[in-house]
Structure formats: C-alpha cells, structure tokens
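For reproducibility, we list the full input for the phosphoric acid mono(formamide)ester complex.
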Amino acid sequence: MPLSSKHIMTMDDLNAEDIALILDTAESFSEVNQRRIKKLPTLRGRTIVNLFFEPSTRTRMSFEIASKRLSADGVNFTASSSATVKGETLRDTAKTLAAMACDMVIVRHKYAGAPQMLAEVMDCPIVNGGDGVHQHPTQALLDLYTMRQSFGKLEGLRVGIVGDICHSRVAGSLVPALNKVGATPIIIGPPTLMPARSDILGAEVAYDLDEVLPTLDVTYLLRVQFERAARMPFPSNREYAMLYGMNPARLAAMPSHGIVMHPGPMNRGVEISADVADSPRSMILDQVESGVAVRMAIMYLMLGGADSGAAA
Ligand code: CP
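The corresponding predicted structure, in tokenized form, follows.
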C-alpha cells in the first residue's frame, strides 16, 4: 500500500508525503489523458463502485472516466433508481455491495460520516466523494494539483477561500490540505456564513474581501449553497455579489500573477461574474481536467496498481 491510509475519508488520512505522491502520480497520468487512445491496462479486472446519493457532475463523471482509463470495471449506483427508495438503509446497501466483492467504493452522501460508516462494514478502500458539509478530499487534491501546475510550487502560496464557508465541504478539506503543503489559507466571507468548526481552524479569517485581494495568489470562490441554508444568510444576491462576488474590478485588484478558482457548479452573477468565470485567469476548467488525472492517481495508488508492474 503506497499511501499511509487504506481509505481517503478526510484530509487527516493523508500526510504531506501522500499528497506529494498523489500529485506526482497524477502528473504522469495527465500525459495519458492527452493521448488519442487514453487507456491503460493497470486496473483490469478490478471493480470500482460510484455510490452517489447526491447529485454530481464533475466528481462522479471524473471518477467514472478515471476508472475506464485504467481499464477497471466502473459501476454507477444511482440512489433514485435503487432499493434506497424502498427504504433500504445505507448500512444494508453497503453490506450488499460488499457481498458482490467490489474493490473500491467512492461515496457521496448528504450525511457527514457516511464514508466512515461504509468502512465499518466493507473491507475495500473507501473514498469520500463529498459527505454533507464535512469534507471533499479529492476536490482538495485536484485543487492542489491545479495550483501546483499554475505556480510550480505550493509552499508559500496565499489562498483566499471566499464565501459560504459554513456549508462548504470543499473548504473543510482545502484548509487542512493547504496547511499540510505549507500554503496559507485565508477564509473570507460575511459573519453569517462563517462557521464555528474545528476542522477549519488554522486558517486566517477576514471579512473584507477588497482588503485582502491584493495579497492573494489564488482567489477560490465557493458556491453559495442555497439548498443547505435554513434561511437566506444575506439580504439579496445583488448585495452578496457587491461585497463578495468576483468581478473584473476585483480581478484587477489581485496581483497580476493571481488566478481564480471555483469547484463548480457556479452561481454565475452571485459568487463569480460571467466575465471572470470565462477569463484566461480562471482555472475552473483546468480544475475539471486535473480531476481526472488526480482520481486516476488515487485509484492506481489505493488499488496497488504500482505493485502490478503496469505504470503510466
Ligand atoms: N466540485 C464538485 O464536487 O462538483 P460536482 O457536485 O458536480 O461533483
């Protein structure tokens, strides 16, 4: 097992050496993704289940593409067409999958801790594809990869994470990930969207985006998660955009080398203007591209592809 943990459930499962190994391995797979025939035999005969109980485009598709590019058998589970609608519990679904001898499970669920529950009843490696408002570690890894590609390094970068911090599993993983690689996370947003969560302590905190922007190498906009908020945490989308939305004037206030990131999906016109989202300094589609290579690296390293002798 080349990684120090059997599972990737939170960023706590990975140390700095694991992160460097995943990013280096992803770099070799990104070359494969540029080829006309984008397929390696590395994980032939292995079965990887995408167990998604919440909607997803990027995470689910990139895990599925990654498994196909490594010749694994990728199987998609969709909650709305499964026995879940008949009342089957997550634990019983997990036991059922275990009985089918799958080799790895990627899980997305609205409840924090769902990956840990699967790990209790299944023997195979579990990867968290996003659990409630808790963590989304593979998003943090692909974000680190994208930053490293942009700057050639991670240590010393100042990364402002802006907006709906309290509902964000992306922030929940990105803050510890940045700390592990020697970068500086700064969480920025209105007090009504700031959490009292121990897993993101360790970030600097700011409430005035315009004050901090000139110091940032990366401005990372978070989606406002209207579906998770009990009530509207600000008076209007227009006011939010005025105070915290990234627009051309704010982009100009960043250092000239500064980049903009967003995990997607975006609320255009709320946390990010269309001009900025589509600008050359936006890395949003680079993040999506990185997602395939990073998830290939995770599957390869967690399923012992390195031991099979088949390499990129
Ligand atoms: N960033 C992200 O997790 O996007 P999806 O919800 O589309 O997977």
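The chain has a mean pLDDT of 94. The first strand starts at residue 47 and ends at 52. Both points were considered when choosing residues for closer inspection.
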